[in-house]
Write a structure and sequence with these properties.
The chain is α+β, with helices and mostly antiparallel strands and 413 residues long. Helix content is 31%, strand content 24%. The strands form six sheets. Strands 1-2-6-3-7-18 form a six-stranded mixed sheet. A four-stranded antiparallel sheet has the order 11-15-9-16, covered by helices on one side. A hairpin with a 4-residue loop joins strand 4 (96-97) and strand 5 (102-104).
Length: 413
């Protein structure tokens, strides 16, 4: 581990957070709770642990001068995705820092950096600059985002506890930007995970067994993949013609295939037997510009075109996909957010988030939310090997949040 003798204390705290192994499939949520409780005491913030079937949510609060005003929510998730340690140059939970100040650890970008940047900015505002927010600020540290959020934010937004926070506007995670700009996400694509099952006649592999399960599944898959090709070509043309981004099109990927008769305890395929059933799984991400009901009808046309012996179900499907308006006349929060960052001479690039975050649950409750991670000039490495964040980029992000939080909580409307 690189020496930390002259390291900024906020960087040291960031690295401490990174060392907590809140990694799936057995995230150390208790370690997260202990760590955040310590910082809440140190920064003089109200601390609350919200029980959630062994997956606790941590709520930190800085009360505003006028608690009757709707609050600002700073949201982050504490869990991280697994690592293949053989592909990392160092221990993925050591938080190793090299001579250039690059900190390598799972969660540096997604998204422990943001969770700590919030706190460091508030510490500076509260305890160094003696700033007093007009409205209350809530910080949420939620579990389970990396496995779909079902036992995290999705459940929490349905509770009275969430409603009592009286949230007017929320910030959540974004993505790193490889250039000078900072990406801001005002919506995201709906995630549909679909499994399709086909059945049909069986028989000897030497015969023409017509309309069998494998044939049906392949014909359906080909329709799906033809649509995938169309969307890819649309993105390629649109990127060159008008700057279209990944979040503006529908992606569709065949991610699972299952079929065949096995023997030897399931380890060997019996290749001379036509199987009686087959399954495929698809990951589909749909932008807010697409009518989800219309799109579902299209999928069903492709699936049921094979007649009998075909069924499907959703492993996960978000049938509501709300975006946050970027019209300054109708969304004062966007106007305020944009003005704060432009005042700091930051170049913004607004996009639809290509994957999924907890913001979708917040937006679907009618609360405007933006995804923003103050990381630029950095390769996008979330979920990748050797994920890192440079300490100078991290510290600049703290500075950005200091100004942004001040601006968002100094007004009444």
């Amino acid at each position: 581990m690189a020496a930390t003798q002259h390291e900024d204390k906020s960087v040291t705290r960031f690295r401490e957070y990174l060392r907590i192994k809140s990694v799936h499939p057995t995230p150390d949520y208790e370690g997260v709770v202990v760590f955040l409780r310590k910082l809440a005491d140190q920064y003089q913030l109200d601390f609350k642990r919200i029980e959630n079937d062994g997956k606790p949510i941590v709520l930190l609060t800085w009360k505003g001068l006028d608690p009757s005003l709707p609050s600002l929510l700073l949201n982050s998730h504490s869990d991280v995705v697994p690592v293949d340690q053989t592909k990392w140059k160092c221990d993925a939970f050591e938080a190793y820092k090299d001579e250039q100040g690059n900190i390598f650890a799972r969660g540096t970008q997604d998204m422990k950096c943001v969770g700590i940047q919030y706190l460091e900015a508030i510490d500076r505002l509260k305890n160094q600059l003696h700033f007093q927010p007009v409205r209350t600020i809530h910080l949420l540290y939620v579990p389970e985002e990396e496995v779909g959020g079902r036992d995290g934010m999705e459940k929490f937004v349905e509770t009275e506890e969430f409603r009592s926070l009286n949230i007017a506007f929320a910030l959540d995670e974004g993505l790193a930007s490889p250039d000078e700009s900072f990406t801001v996400f005002y919506g995201e694509r709906a995630a549909w995970w679909v499994r399709i099952k086909t059945t049909g006649p069986t028989g000897h592999g030497s015969r023409f067994v017509e309309n069998n399960a494998m044939e049906k599944l392949i014909r359906i898959a080909n329709k799906f993949l033809a649509f995938r090709k169309e969307q890819f070509e649309t993105l390629q043309r649109g990127h060159h013609e008008c700057g279209m981004k990944l979040g503006d099109v529908t992606t569709l990927n065949l991610t699972a295939l299952k079929g065949g008769v096995t023997s030897d305890g399931g380890h060997t395929f019996q290749l001379n037997v036509v199987p009686g059933e087959a399954e495929a799984g698809f990951d589909i991400r749909i932008p807010p510009s697409v009518d989800l009901n219309v799109f579902r009808k299209q999928l069903e046309e492709w699936i049921y075109s094979e007649g009998e012996g075909v069924s499907y179900y959703f492993v996960a499907a978000h049938m509501k996909n709300t975006s946050t308006s970027l019209n300054e006349d109708e969304n004062s929060w966007w106007k305020l957010f944009k003005a704060s960052l432009e005042k700091q001479n930051l170049k913004l690039d607004t996009q639809i988030f290509p994957a999924a975050t907890d913001s979708r649950f917040i937006r679907n409750k009618g609360i405007p939310a933006l995804g923003f991670s103050p990381i630029n000039n950095t390769p996008i490495l979330l979920h990748d090997h050797n994920e890192f964040l440079n300490e100078r980029v991290y510290l600049r992000g703290v500075d950005i949040y200091v100004q942004l939080i001040r601006d968002l909580t100094s007004v009444k409307f």
